[in-house]
Amino acid sequence: MRHVVIGGGIAGTTAAEELRKLDADAEITLVGEDHEIIYSRVLLPHYAKGLVPREKLFLKKETWYAEKNIEWMPGTRCDAIDVTNRHVALSNGRELPYDKLLLATGGEARTLPYEGENVCYFHSLGDTEHLISLMRSRAGGRGIVYGGSFIACELLDVFLYHHMPTVAAFRGPWMFHRILDADSGELVSDHLRAVGADVRPGSETLESVGATDADVVGVGVGVEPDLAWIRDAGIAVNKGVVTSARLETSAGDVYAAGDVTEFEDLVVGRTLMAGNWPSAVMQGRVAARNMAGKPEEFRNVSAYATNLAGLDIIGVGDTDRAFADEIRIVGSRAAGGVTQLFVRAGKVVGATMVGRTGDRTQVTNAIRDGLAPETLSLR
Q1: Residue 38 in contact with residue 62, Cβ under 8 Å?
Q2: What is the pLDDT of residue 379?
Q3: Structural domain containing residue 136
């Protein structure tokens, strides 16, 4: 059996490892654009703060691939898939035949048209090392973080940790304006002001907040997968690669896992993307089991969480306001904490929590078990 895994991040590496556990004799090739061995993206903010040394980021030794008899092809891109003849074309000129193929290519940071030596993103190890270099060479300078996403929160947390005077700029009326209500969003803005940030809502461009004069500009406007080459292969895509609950794509014997995947979410009852580390690990494992002929469905309550200079911000389950029949609010801006419950067909399907970490377990269990909001005892 020949397994080819495209993507050397946590979903792809987990899948390759699981495949080897399940089949000692299979041919396994792991293709990744990164030149680095697998590292923890979760630890990148801690590395940027100087709390974790570089060597602690790496999750495997370079010898691990050979020890597991996994052919590792770093610095290599997949350019095309031939689903009829079952092979992939790589940027190094090789064509790899496959019996089972996994797409685990993740996403890339969305970029802005603004360019400058002072600009940094925050998605990869390379991005992080560029940020560290800028902050060291421009210590004592002024920073701007642009965006209302979780990545923007991580950047703000790093800037504020280093005591850099920072503008927090975003297009909407508050951060996460597509999922947070006014009280939740303004609570985040209140906290940013309290810890010394200059909050600038309604900022349409970086130039409008003085990016050309700033010493360090961090951009966090989301992540998106590269789908063009997958679409060209005739594989169904939407916002991500569309899969079943078993992570099967529309092409036979082709699977997807991790941030690139738009999967059938059996917990909330519709297709979702779950761009977070725990889901990527679990999907890599489930995809591998299905590739090895051991049918299994992916079932998990997806969650995003960050701590913004002392304020916990959490999203659980389906937090798309457009798909909620009702949104119930617990807490208030004045009380210092707000939880939103997203309700569909009488069941809790998602939630956001700002400053109310204690609600997380109860809410997650309610989503997992399909419970009505009335069953929760949140105060």
Answers
A1: no
A2: 84
A3: 110-219
- Residue 98 maps to a domain: yes
Nearest to residue 100, comparing CAs of 248, 238, 231? 248
> According to the model, what pLDDT value does residue 215 have?
96
CA 308, CA 305: separation in Å to the nearest integer? 10
Considering the domain architecture, whether residues 316 and 171 belong to the same structural domain is answered as no
pTM of the model: 0.96
Within a 13 Å sphere around the CA of 249, how many CA atoms are in the beta-carbon half? 25
Q: How many domains does the chain have?
A: 3
188 is a domain residue: yes
Q: Rounded mean pLDDT of the chain?
A: 97
Same domain as 133, residue 173: yes
In a domain, residue 296? The reply is: no
Are residues 39 and 55 in contact, defined by beta-carbon separation less than 8 angstroms?
no
Contact 22, 291 (CB under 8 A): no
Q: Please, which residues bridge with residue 168 across strands?
A: 145, 199
Residue showing tokens 């690990």? 281
Please tell me the number of Cα atoms within 13 Å of 124 on its side-chain side.
16
Q: Can you read off the two tokens belonging to residue 95?
A: 């064509």
pLDDT of 115 over the 90 cut:
no
Residue 110's beta-bridge partner residues?
Answer: none
Q: For a pLDDT cut of 70, what percent of the chain falls above it? A: 100
* 298 within some domain: no
Rg of the chain on CA atoms, in Å: 21
> Based on the domain organization, do 238 and 91 belong to the same domain?
yes
The CATH number of the domain holding residue 211 is 3.50.50.60
The pLDDT, as a whole number, for residue 156 is: 98
